[in-house]
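Subject: Sanity check before I submit

Could someone independently write out the structure tokens for this chain? I want to compare against mine line by line before I put it in a report. The sequence has 286 residues.
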Amino acid sequence: MFSIIIPAYNETTVITDTINSILSDGAITKSQIIIVCNACHDNTAEVVRQFAIKAENLLKQQKIEILILETPIASKTNAINLGHSKATHLKRILLDADILISGASLVTLYSEMHLNNALVASPKAIFNYAKSDFWVNQYYQVASVSNYNRFQRISNVIALSEQATQRLGNLPSIIADDEYISRQFCESEKLVVDKCYFEFACPLNVISLLKTQTRVRLGNIQLNKLGITKKVPAKSTSLPEDKINKSTMLSLTIFTCIKLCIYSRAQWQIWTKTAPIWERDESSRS
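---
Independent answer below. Compare away.
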């Protein structure tokens, strides 16, 4: 059925939940789950090994192979490339290690991609900011209903057709792996599937939000400098007019201010050459 590639960097706290979410409904069979531990300094690989031992009967019943790869190279794109090199199925899914999605949703995702003649597809993202602080809550009240996040977001869970995998080849060493993949395809070749979804755990505090979104900004700047642009001009990614009213003005104002902070932070890191090797949201993983 599938080869599911999961790059993992110090994911001890979430990795078994991620694998369980795929397997628990029994929808995925005759598949391969490849966990690629890249430069982990925790025991992610051992946690997965112990999971595979405990779930041996379930894995045999569903004909699931769990393959654990380890590399000292701290690179998500390199981890994805390693996963592809060991994948045995033509149907591929790239899955972030902290994302919970059911097996049935993955089946639906791939089926809808095929029915709509798309080459790459992602499920609808449901943004969970219920436990986030006031600033993050206001930010995602706007971001979650933007045209980009509703119709164009190829990220976190990405189904790849055989043709897409061949077109992509090995990913280069870049920051924005999901955006790089998205930019290799025109809008008619991409699909966001409303019939399935995953829950995106938003950062719990504004500091974590700034860190992760600054990395997104740096990644997009890097792609632009490399001449990796969208295949065609994208549709507007802004908030649709029917979503704007008096009650959203505060959220819009906070969203805009945070975006300006992100832009300034990214530009400062470029100018001072102080961009960290890796910034991610640790708050939602705790």
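---
OP: Matches mine. For the report I'm noting this point. The chain has a mean pLDDT of 92.
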